[in-house]
Amino acid sequence: MTIITRSLAMLAHLSDQQTPDTAVLQLLASILGAKTLLGLKKKTADALKHLLPCDHFAFAIVERRADSLYVNDLIHTTPSGYARALVRRDGLAPSTNADIVRQIGRARFIRTESLCDPADQGWAELLKRHHIENFAWTILPDTEADSFIAYLFHNVSPSVAAECKPRVMLLAPHIHIALSRALPKRGDKARETGPAPFSQQPTPLSKREQQIAGWVACGKTNWEIGQILKISDLTVKTHVQNILCKLSLTNRSQIAAWFAEHKKAS
């Protein structure tokens, strides 16, 4: 049984399905077809409008060290303030009383007001501060030991809240497969350094600026690039401004287009 066939079986019991099966399959297939992180974010956002309406989402690649959780990468559409608070500069995530291992493969739907355990207060305060009333989430295993990927969907619409768990489990495996293809593996030099700088094509950019231009082309924010390269987002911002100035460009989309064009030429 293929993942698409299993998806149809999961859809069969949804009581308020307003999107035809063929359209659902097209949305899921579109996610599976994403080649880049930027493409995956866009295709996921398009699918969520129909299958799990919510304000924004985040995919966190998390490593468990002793009793703490560290976020190694964050792919998200959340407000920057929330993302910054979600992951401290050292990568440490808010503590939780949830047994992570036992949560793998399960979908959860939580209302912020229900987070009363003292161990969850960090999460409760963070969510309330950023006006997140509820969130649906699941965890799927990563390829590395003691690592997993958390899929979070914030402020799920009341219209699908009662059915959000099967909807999460319908979406998450497709996103998981596409993400594993689009995201360089840990230990892969590309994950640490970004897309390779140009070896032959002349460019006014330094190697670091080429590196950052590559991550900009992947759709990463300054904060995300800083997390990957272990530098501050203000340093990244300075590099981006230098890139714009050197190339006589005005925005990040133009940087992405420039990078793609020069990669072809090299």
Automatic annotation (TrEMBL):
Keywords: DNA-binding, Transcription, Transcription regulation
GO MF assignments: DNA binding
Leader sequence residues: none
SUPFAM superfamilies associated with the record: C-terminal effector domain of the bipartite response regulators (SSF46894)
Origin superkingdom: Bacteria
Pfam family, one: GerE
One GO BP annotation of this record: regulation of DNA-templated transcription
Residue span, HTH luxR-type domain: 198-263
Keyword Transcription: yes
InterPro entries xrefs: Sig_transdc_resp-reg_C-effctor (IPR016032), Tscrpt_reg_LuxR_C (IPR000792), WH-like_DNA-bd_sf (IPR036388)
Identification of the protein by name: HTH luxR-type domain-containing protein
Native species: Alkalilimnicola ehrlichii
